[in-house]
Amino acid sequence: MIKEIKGLHHVTSMAADAQTNNDFFTRTLGLRRVKKTVNFDAPDVYHLYYGDEVGTPGSVMTYFPFGAMPRGSRGAGEVAETVFSVPKGTLPFWQERLSGLKVAGLEGYELFGEKRLRFLGPDGDGFALAEVDGDHRTPFDGGSVSKDEGIHGFRGATMRLRDEGATAELLQYMGYQPVDRQGEMIRYAIPDGNGADFIDLEVIPAAARANQGAGSVHHIAFAVEDRAAQLAVRRALLDTGYNVTPVIDRDYFWAIYFRTPAGVLFEIATNEPGFDRDEDSAHLGEALKLPTRYQPHRAQIEAHLPPIRD
């Protein structure tokens, strides 16, 4: 069994419009944009990162805004809901705030003993806030939400599947343990994680397959401390028969990818070197940062990308 994984690292989704996406995460949810760069494979598309003060692994939501991309359709074989942790007793604040800002899909509910507030992102993305007592991670305090009500980071994510079997086996091989079950939901937790500790499986045998588009999660990344731990995970996954990519330098972390039996793209990302590798932490996310190979094309790339007003 793999022992190096410490919870979630980041979640990456797709969006239609960069400005709308930026406004939602910085102004509505009060997160900090910690990096403004471009998609490694499509430099005419932004890659935007939002998180806590420094983009701590386990707090970072990232987006590829593809312009006029049609919305995805929800279904099986995807990450259906990304869940953020907020301080205990703050859901009434968030209910009033999100309702006042006309956020769609607001619905209060309880799951595994947690009070939650479900809502939709600007492209129909599935999100929830979960009240968590004793989350010691510090929310970003420089935005539109104070740290008393702010988002600590991820609580976890929900994968919607037709069948639990192979994915459950994979999660347990990755170090997750089954800890609870409620109706069609099965909860898995990583021991001694980074706070973003839970993966919930929602099993709906008759669900249609999801189709990716704006508002869909592109991949979900799990955190390891460093490159040595990542190589150990890669070896273990290869030995078990998974088709794992070579290590890829993503500038702010190193990444490997593989697809689960249910079709969800998993990434294993290192906590090093972090988002302050090429920017002072006081100015994270302000300037457009480009991968080295695109530096000679900066003028062309900047001319193509739509400006983002902060």
Task: Name the features.
310 residues, eight-stranded mixed β-sheet, 16% helix
Give the strand order of the largest sheet, numbering strands 1, 2, ... along the chain. Answer: 2-3-4-1-13-16-15-14
Largest sheet: 8 strands, mixed
Task: Provide the helix percentage.
Answer: 10-25%
> Rg from C-alpha positions?
18 Å
Report the sheet-strand fraction.
25-35%
Distance between the termini: 45 Å
Task: Estimate the mean pLDDT confidence.
Answer: 97
| H/I helix tally | 5
Q: What is the number of strand segments?
A: 16
Low-confidence stretches: none
Globally, the shape reads globular
Series of secondary-structure elements, N-terminal to C-terminal? EHEEEEHEEEEHEEEEHEEEH
- Helix/strand-derived category reads alpha+beta
Overview of this protein structure:
Pfam families: Glyoxalase. InterPro entries: Extradiol_RC_dioxygenase, Glyas_Bleomycin-R_OHBP_Dase, Glyas_Fos-R_dOase_dom, VOC_core. Keywords: Dioxygenase, Oxidoreductase. This is Ring-cleaving dioxygenase. One of its GO terms (molecular function) is dioxygenase activity. This protein has 310 residues and is of the alpha+beta class. It is built from five helices and 16 strands. An eight-stranded mixed sheet has the order 2-3-4-1-13-16-15-14. Strands 6-7-8-5-9-12-11-10 form an eight-stranded mixed sheet, covered by helices on one side. The protein starts with 7 loop residues before the first strand and ends in a 6-residue tail after the last helix.
